[in-house]
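Notes to self after the Tuesday call (sharing in case useful).
The group wants a holo model before anyone commits to mutagenesis around the pocket. I volunteered. Ligand is zinc ion. Logging inputs and output together so the record is complete.
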Amino acid sequence: MKKGLILGYIYVLSLTILISLAPQIKASGISENHFSTVHPETSQTAASDKINNSDPSSQPVLQSAAHELAGNAFPVKNTVCYEIRGTSNQLSKKNVQSLAKWKQQITDFSLQNNNVVYLNGETDERAVALTFDDGPDAVVTPAVLDIFKSYGEHGSFFFIGQNVKAFPAVVQRAYQEGNLVLNHSYSHPDFSDKSSNFITGEINRTNEIIKNVIGKVPSLIRPPYGIINENVVKIGKNQNIKLIIWSIDTFDWSQREAGHIAQNVLENVRPGDIVLMHSNSDKSQTLKALPQIIEGLHAKGYKIVTLDNLLHTSAYQN
Ligand SMILES: [Zn+2]
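Result:
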């Protein structure tokens, strides 16, 4: 009798706790869009993928009209555009909206200019490229190089011209160890409202500085914030430069937790993915995530390749 009373009491108590917790449980499901973070990569177009990252099977691979017209069973080179993946719980609702808009725009640009703007490579092989923006610096970029060296792997680095000027030895080392040294503008401006002259100046100035360090001029460029417009595409076409975006954002600039950064790669990876990370000085969590990412990719049977191999193109103009 006494036991029955106690059990009854526990039952009522549990029920009360459950009912009182219900609103919090429900709220936590939608709360992640209400934080506010500004993308160092995309202050205007800060991006999150949460809205369309729930079910990969519901996200069809986008294909260009050219591909459909060709009626080929095997896709024409770079006419398949992956849906850009990756999540962060540190984005405001506004960030999420601007990201969704940016994704649509960049995907359209890629589909319309399939030999200039790349979000991903096209391959059936389990191969991905790990790319690092915003370096070099004195600490994080050398540590990333150490990690690649210890695994016998290589990365593709989009360096900022003024940082190359400050840390030329790091750039030289990256190149000598077999990594790609690529162009991420001179001063990291948003190209969308700049003149052709200004944009060309940013690109050429950085090319010149990189040439002085490694003797090569990059032919692959990542526009700051992943932002392009018709003007930038035209410059790319005229100068025979490829504009490289990404198909997985690790959000290492937003949700700076090694586990989450690695998860963004390992839970989303597809053959041909281009993965966005950063190697500037405040990316210690990216460093922590990198061994997990490399080992996780290997465990899934993926090989890590540089962008020139992934895109079957040349990384340098000379
Ligand atoms: Zn950047």
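Two things stood out.
The first strand starts at residue 62 and ends at 63.
Residues 117-310 form a domain with the TIM Barrel fold (CATH 3.20.20.370).
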